[in-house]
Design brief:
Strand order of the largest sheet: 6-3-4-5-7
Number of strands: 8
Number of helices: 15
Order of helices and strands: HHHHHHHHHHEEEEEEHHHHEEH
Number of domains: 4
Structural class: alpha+beta
Helix content: 40-55%
Mean pLDDT: 82
Largest sheet: 5 strands, antiparallel
Strand content: 5-15%
Length: 496
């Protein structure tokens, strides 16, 4: 090592405090460079290594830098000497003698200062880049974020960084996110967080600054065909179809209603809910063409029950756009429709649902329980066909276990129904939170809850996916009247 740097290290190691400062600063700097080199080569990976590299090492480096002048100050007070006198004692005369461009010591300190600035600046940039990665968000606090990470990886947004929705753009958003992240670190360290983690609606950036970078409501148009397949609980798990022609537009075509009318640029809807669950709506305001507001008040709730007022945007319906926790019956229907559970297995849906919804405490218990429920049933009821069913049962049990692992997280109290979706008409209330007869305006009129407002019905729990495009049944058929009415409604909604 260069003699000049050896002299400086010895001179700064004034006492045990200064020595610790020098040791911490030097060690943190060298370890940072070494680990960063290994990370660039791909030899060392992982969020925990990143936490140490980009958070722990810079923190130790700064702490060491603070200790060095602190130790020097203690030395001055204990000896009663000035800094000049101490420097004359601890450094060579040739190091402190002034020259045309300053003393050798001053030039060395200047060089070290520049190195420190570059190190801290580069470390900070690398830290921010690392903390913006989805792997950091999902795995750094593995136990806490395991549910969100599991659902994120299987979502349609798996290639969109977490920060693009949860942070957004701009310096203010970055600062807010880091302050919030600091509290999250404290809450995780001291076990102060809720289980399950509440949906952070009040902390999300407005959808116009996140979702609408890719999704543009004013350009939604036309219809989208949605076919939902469910199955009976009988031996053959019979297919049942509900087929909808979804009106995904934003109300520009003159039709009676379209789904994204609520978030089009020219419209504005605001509402007050009892809390952040956004399921009990106190009132809804709709902005009129003249700039006034038309209010619909819930006659079943007191106006004093208000808690949160929001301007409606994408996440008020698409509240689980990425972190989607499935309904157990719905996901079993999907697995059967995809062929992951063979409908040729007798009572496939009934047994799969029973196996999936067992009360399991961990993955090992879930694996054993699913196997016991599925294999046990067919071993008792169909012993002679067990060999025939074996391979299909293995595939079904593996699919059910993967589904359980994605949706159920006992350590975080996440189970079926912990995070309901607000889309459609499911457990979360969906459209009917606002589209119901209890929200009425000053004239006593309610927000429309007509089924065909947002979709046309082509089949409703039918054996055929396009039930209402088929001829109307004979008059003697008990379903003829309803079928005819729904077919007329479907044809009516096709015309603007």
């Amino acid at each position: 090592m260069n003699r000049r740097f050896v002299n400086i290290i010895r001179g700064l190691s004034t006492n045990w405090i200064g020595s610790i400062g020098v040791a911490l600063t030097t060690t943190a700097f060298l370890l940072f460079l070494f680990v960063e080199f290994l990370r660039v080569l791909g030899i060392v990976t992982g969020s925990y290594i990143g936490l140490i590299t980009y958070l722990a090492f810079p923190a130790l480096f700064i702490f060491g830098l603070v200790l060095i002048p602190f130790g020097w100050g203690i030395l001055r007070r204990s000896t009663g000497k000035t800094s000049r006198e101490l420097m004359a004692e601890r450094f060579e005369p040739s190091d402190i003698e002034g020259k045309a461009y300053g003393s050798r010591l001053a030039r060395t300190f200047l060089l070290l200062t520049l190195i420190n600035i570059l190190f801290l600046g580069g470390g900070t940039a690398r830290m921010l880049h690392f903390m913006d990665s989805s792997e950091f968000c999902g795995t750094a606090c593995h136990g806490v974020m395991a549910p969100e990470w599991a659902t994120y990886q299987s979502s349609a947004h798996a290639h969109v960084k977490c920060v693009e929705c949860h942070v957004g753009e701009g310096t203010g958003a970055l600062i807010d996110s880091k302050i919030n992240g600091l509290w999250q670190m404290i809450s995780v360290t001291f076990d102060l967080y809720e289980r399950p983690i509440p949906t952070p609606v009040h902390q999300l950036r407005p959808a116009r600054e996140t979702c609408e970078h890719c999704h543009w409501p004013d350009k939604f148009y036309g219809d989208r065909l949605l076919e939902m397949v469910n199955h009976d609980f009988n031996e053959s798990s019979t297919h049942r179809y509900t087929t909808l022609s979804m009106k995904v537009g934003s109300g520009q075509g003159g039709r009676r209603g379209e789904i994204h009318w609520h978030v089009a640029d020219r419209n504005e809807v605001r509402y007050c809910s009892v809390n952040d669950d956004r399921q009990d709506i106190v009132w809804v305001d709709v902005k009129q063409d003249d700039g006034s507001w038309r209010r619909f008040e819930n006659r079943l709730l007191s106006l004093g029950d208000r808690d949160a007022v929001r301007t409606m945007d994408c996440v008020d319906c698409h509240n689980r756009a990425t972190h989607i926790y499935q309904d157990p019956e719905q996901v079993v229907d999907e697995l059967i429709a995809q062929g992951d559970i063979d409908r040729g297995l007798p009572f496939a849906k009934r047994q799969a649902l029973a196996a999936l919804t067992g009360n399991y405490t961990d993955i090992d218990a879930a694996k054993a329980g699913i196997e016991a429920e599925m294999s046990g049933f067919y071993r008792v009821r169909y012993p002679k066909r067990l060999g025939e069913f074996a391979s299909r049962l293995d595939v079904a049990m593996e699919s059910l276990l993967e589904t359980w692992k994605r949706n159920i997280h006992p350590g975080m109290n996440v189970t079926w129904g912990s995070y309901p979706s607000l889309l459609g008409h499911d457990a979360g209330g969906g459209c009917f939170r606002c589209h119901n007869p209890d929200l009425i305006d000053a004239d006593g009129r309610s927000i429309s809850n007509d089924c065909t407002l947002c979709h046309s019905i082509l089949a409703d729990d039918s054996a055929h996916p396009f039930q209402f495009l088929l001829p109307i049944p004979e008059k003697g058929d008990p379903d003829a009247k309803r079928h005819g009415y729904l077919q007329q409604e479907f044809l009516r909604t096709l015309t603007p």
